[in-house]
Amino acid sequence: MEKKSKVTKLTKMTKKDNYGNTSFALEFENGDKGFYACKNEEQKIFIAGEEATYLIEEKQGSSGKTYFKITIPQKNFGGGKPGYVPVDPRIQMISFSTSYAKDLVVADKIKIDQLAQKSEEIFKTMMKLYDTIK
Description:
This protein is of the alpha+beta class. Helix content is 28%, strand content 30%. It contains two helices and five strands, in the order E-E-E-E-E-H-H. Strand 4 and strand 5 form a beta hairpin. The chain is elongated, with a radius of gyration of 27 Å.
């Protein structure tokens, strides 16, 4: 669950976890307490006295004790740059089929003047397969 609260206490743990992460014990103004782990020993996400947005999740340790894991919310990337439009698969197939036909010319399987015809044949076959699985 995503929450927002001021960090009241931040304690850097001395021992790293099995993945080489540094752990920090965190306490928040709203009473939440938990552990945050990150690769950077000098993390800049949670700063005492500043408000932070975080996720908190109850976990069970290997010894059976429960603890709270604190993470930062992940941003929704939604396909890259704003306004990003995915490439039409047909355009990709035109490129692939032409490249495959070119490979046949290089391998001396067809003549250069047959390139366009063979590319079109490959493209039509690819489109039939695409329509079948779509």
